[in-house]
Design goal:
Layout: H1 11-17, E1 33-35, E2 41-44, H2 46-53, H3 68-74, H4 81-99
Antiparallel strand pairs: 1-2
């Protein structure tokens, strides 16, 4: 199965007809979010909001209130302990590497 790009073209068709490489995060077909170096959410898609982070209207205006661990611990992922534990361990390993 080939990935489908914007406009319904396959990746091969898109790159043959395009003169430059274009990347987008708008069409990621699964839950995805982006965090900065302080683990504060800077971007998310609707699937991540519904499945991982918890249903909220919008992120707080103050970036300090956007800590991803807070959202993961309070969101739907927290109810499935096995998955949330792995995700949290991953973030803790990243934090430890950033501190040392």
């Amino acid at each position: 199965m080939q990935p489908v790009m914007a406009g319904g073209k396959s990746a091969a068709q898109y790159f043959k007809s395009s003169s430059s490489l274009q990347l987008t995060i708008d069409y990621i077909p699964f839950a995805a979010y982006m965090v900065n170096y302080n683990f504060e959410i800077t971007w998310y898609n609707e699937q991540a909001r519904n499945e991982l982070l918890g249903k909220f209207e919008s992120l707080p205006a103050d970036i300090k209130g956007r800590n991803v661990l807070t959202y993961l611990l309070k969101g739907p992922l927290e109810k499935s302990r096995g998955q949330s534990r792995g995700v949290i361990q991953f973030f803790l390993l990243l934090a430890k590497a950033a501190v040392t």
